[in-house]
Please model this.
Amino acid sequence: MEELQRSFSPPPCPTTVTVRRNPPRKARATPYTTGAKPPSTISLNTHHVPSFPMDEILSIQIPQHEPIKPLVSESLKIFLRIKPLKSFTKVTTTTKTRPRNVWPQNPSKKTNAKKSTRIEEACIALNDAYSVTLTPPQALQEMKRSKTEVYEGFSHVFAADCSQNDVYDKMVKPLLEDFMKGKSGMLAALGPSGSGKTHTVFGTPKNPGIVPLTLRQIFRKSDETSPGSLRTFYLSIFEICSERGKGEKAYDLLGDGSSELYVQQSTIRGLKEVSIQNLEEAESLIGQAMLKRATATTNSNSQSSRSQCIINIRAACNDVSNETKMQSSDAMLTIVDLAGAEREKRTGNQGERLVESNFINNTSMVFGQCLRSLLEYQKNRKKGLQKHHQNSLLTRYLRDYLEGKKRMALILTVKAGEEDYLDTSYLLKQASPYMKIKFDNTEEPCNKRQLTTFPRVEKNKKIKLSAPKTSQIEEVVAGERNQISQEVNLQGKNANPTDKSSPRLEHVAMEKNEREHIIMQNFAKVIWNVLKQYNEKLKVAEGEICSLKDNLRSEQLKSLELETELIHLKSSCKQNLAEPCIPETEAPIHAKEQFERNVDGDSCNLIEAGREVSVEGCNKSSGPSKNVEDAELVVCHTSTDNDLEPRHPINPEENVGTTQVEAEATNFPSDQAIQNEDDPTPSPDSPEHVEVSQDCINNRLSNIQTKSAIFRRFPDSEKQKRNRRLLPASSSSLAEEMGDLDVKDNQIEKPQVKISEIRVQEKSESTQGPEIEIPAREAEPASTKKQGSRQKPRRRLQPASSVLLTREINTLEIEDDVAESKGTRGRKKTTASQPRSQGSVTLLRLLTNNLHI
Ligand SMILES: Nc1ncnc2c1ncn2[C@@H]1O[C@H](COP(=O)(O)OP(=O)(O)OP(=O)(O)O)[C@@H](O)[C@H]1O
Model:
């Protein structure tokens, strides 16, 4: 035992205790870094955690998407075209000296004129297809103001003798191929005035420029592709010029009538887009636009362009049934012919031309600023791209290109003469750095922004894809498939369908894939949105279900409570009904009902009804009781069988009230209470008192039937004994309340009835006072009572005035009796509360004696 105790006893306390404050903290090594084993507690629980389903995840078949194409960064393509030098015809004349006496000869033979053609000295020399050397004029070299410079890195330099077709092949063709694949692109011509921009872009009927050649190529290609032509092309041409130097305005060069366009930020609205079916249509439209374009004669150019001209060729699918598809396949080729920068000294512009010149120079400057800022941005992206494009309508319109988002190419046109050195030098210095501008060639075919900013033909309203019909999407997909199969079949005529190496077939397959991918993507987005909506609805429904469940629970609880209450009531009723019942005690209810029926009747009827109630309700009760018990006890207003008239005036309210009081008073009298009947001062703690004060209060107003049923509990003999009821104070107050309640219920009664109510109240107040002896004259002899118990009680009607008078007298008598019998016993409240004058008392007595009531 001792050993056992020793083993459980704590170790002895050490003599010194060291408390270490702020123990040194060490970084806890993570289990991953240390490779330490996890604690054994964790390892014990791990068998509950399912293992990570790595195999399942790996076994999931991920749909094979098209491999993401690597980003191809391309440099901005800049081409240089040198305008042929001017050829001068020099006329030299040789004059011979003749003797004065010589007859004048033929004037034509007088002078020997010699015509010689002189070629202007060139400042620019072509090194190779990609570089040029710019040599300043002799005068400038001598002044050492400038030196020879080499500009290289061009995508191609077109010599002066190159043809328009060369330009098209080298510069436009690659762009057009991309355009036909659905990629947008832009081409702009830059250069000083008279350098050949318009010549390059539009050309002449003999030497068509880029636009006509492109259109030719387009229609030739579309003819080759299919007779049904897969795409439709639209042409729109507009120009931007200044309005007297105040602002920029856009004019539709293909529009009818008023061709001014509404410009809003980068959007140009109202631009007419003409569908072009063939080359002839296209060429005629181009000719129409050229005629409308603003031109003027300057020193530099006899037909100088005074505006920036923009030509848009849009390709759209022919079998487009909805906007979704159109967006995915539209492409825009934009060709811009800028007005050439002008030097005032050279052009000699004045007035309106000078204003135009300023606008042109300004636009050229902004254009250059945009490209420079793009270059700087690409060098250092932290700087951010400056918003120079906002300074000009043209640059706003071409924003996507000038921000490097879409492919574009520039062609610089220069004049090669010595006198054009400064202009050429300025342009080359400015534009050669642009060659370093890069752009990612990953542009999706024609995004939304492009569609909103670019002109378009009036189309159907956009179809919302928030709730699409599956059938529509299926139609689209089916249409796509048909189109592609048709295309493939057509290609199959020229190429072997099994030969997958055919570039055209590859292209078609790629297009098919792309379209299907986009369609499925949109479809998936739509389904996702629908699912989201359903999910939200489901959540709302769940919330409603929860609230309904709660309500149901609370209702069930309430019903349970009600059921228990009902059971309780039933049990109490059973207890009460177990005792003998008196059928005649239905009288109170009957009286009440009758009273209510007669509320609208005259007062006499009411009084009669009340008396009837009194008689019927109490005909079984015992004879009159005249014993004075206690001042606090209330006298029950019961009448004997022989009472032909009430012992005191009765009005319906009083009657009902007293009957109710009686009913309640007889509600729960226990045997003990009956036994203690002789005891005038019942203990407030007695069971009767408790029962009456609690149950009566709880049930006093609930059901009058219950009261009447309880009233039946007592046989006639008992009731006769109980003609004077001893009630505790609570019961008497309850009786008052009942009386009040009845008064309230019958507030619509006539004034006469109200007066009687007041009387009843006064009466009830008086009954609360000391014990009152019922007047002797109301009491009938016992023999009469017995006789009357067998006879049917007679009803006697009295006028209301007499009733009131009688009551007054009764009151007086009661008061007098009380005063006589009790003397100064105290506790009397009636006399104290309602003192009467000596005169009134005498008057009442006289009346009593004379009237013999
Ligand atoms: N490569 C070229 N071959 C032959 N003629 C040319 C060539 N380039 C320009 N020209 C001629 O030079 C003249 C001026 O050309 P163009 O109008 O195209 O210049 P521009 O740059 O458009 O001038 P502006 O900016 O003032 O409109 C025209 O008559 C045109 O025929």
In short: The CA atoms of residues 205 and 499 lie 43 Å apart.
